[in-house]
Amino acid sequence: MPDSLNSLAATDLPGTAQLLSALPVPVVLLDERERFRFANPAAELFLGLSTASLAQMHLTDLLPEDSRLPALVRQVRAADAPISDHDLILHSPRIHREGVAAHGAPLPEMPGAVVLTLQDGSTAQKLDRQMNFRGAARGASAMAAMLAHEVKNPLSGIRGAAQLLEQAASEDDRELCVLIQDEADRIRDLVERMDMFSERPLEREAVNIHEVLDHVRRIAGTGFAAHLRILQEYDPSLPPVWGNRDQLVQVLLNLVKNAAEAVDPREGEIVLTTAYRHGVRLAIPGSRERVHLPLEVTVRDNGPGIDEEVRASLFDPFITTKRGGQGLGLALVAKLVADHGGLIECESRPGRTVFRLSLAKPPASAPQPQGRARARQTA
């Protein structure tokens, strides 16, 4: 079999191959033995494999034989007619995508061959969820304002009254007065934490995200993650991020701290990565604006994973799996990422949890930051 999928396809089907290569939708061609005979550039990006790698593979090398996509290919071949399927999960050691729509059709020019088009429905879901995160953040902000106005003033009166009563109270009653003061302080602290969600103008500049990650790693390595191995895998050619440095530090510090608390203290590992994803421009629901978010930053850990039921509402306020946690950390992360016009997603299974940030480049007129981080570092 030739080393190049596209050269083979161009020999067999020159006009078809040229047309499919220009499509922004992932397209692959499978022969009668389910070998990959063609993959357009969008499919390479979607599958995370080059044409040279795919040229050596069958579909069942990529996905288990009993999964729904190989079954769809067999159905197309048996019926000799187009067939579609939706909400597929493509899961194997090589790939993990959810909410995929697939359409298979026979190719008359090649008996037994099937053309597959794949669409990642999770892109639209990401945008919808991001809008939900913004709504949740605004709701938390409104709640903070209400609590500050309606609760903090009465709390001051309650605490002051408890202090006065403590002076003339018996020993047993004095303990109750101290308890009232402590609980008043706890409620006040919660209200002040909620104030972090308030809407404030975001000052942005070109930020070297590698320097931000190095700073976060140093903080973690000398504190809460001193006992863990932290790896850094950087794309050294990555352009700057258009953002607020302090808030990006806050976002990544939260994610690394969560990872450190989730992993086994003896075998835990956290990996920080950056990459440039060409991707596509995304339309924001309800707007003519299109955003390009090619800069990807991930925080990956080898902890036990996050339950599927929890993942659905992971970024909502007051959702937490930590004992004594208040569930505001990831809600704040989602709010800050949304303020940057970016996306945040979580993929998780036992032994692997990935928080993925997609961020924008600076406008062409923005001053560029100085310095680059090393491509790879290991702690």
From TrEMBL:
Gene3D superfamilies: 1.10.287.130, Histidine kinase-like ATPase, C-terminal domain, PAS domain. It comes from the Bacteria. InterPro entries: HATPase_C_sf, HATPase_dom, His_kinase_dom, HisK_dim/P_dom, HisK_dim/P_sf, PAS, PAS-like_dom_sf, PAS_fold. It catalyses: ATP + protein L-histidine = ADP + protein N-phospho-L-histidine. Its EC number is 2.7.13.3. Pfam families: HATPase_c, HisKA, PAS. Signal peptide: none annotated. Keywords: ATP-binding, Kinase, Nucleotide-binding, Phosphoprotein, Transferase, Two-component regulatory system. It is an enzyme of class 2 (transferase). Residues 146-363 form the Histidine kinase domain. GO terms for molecular function: ATP binding. PANTHER family: PEROXIDE STRESS-ACTIVATED HISTIDINE KINASE MAK3, SENSOR HISTIDINE KINASE. This is histidine kinase. It comes from Roseomonas populi. The lineage of its organism: Bacteria, Pseudomonadati, Pseudomonadota, Alphaproteobacteria, Acetobacterales.
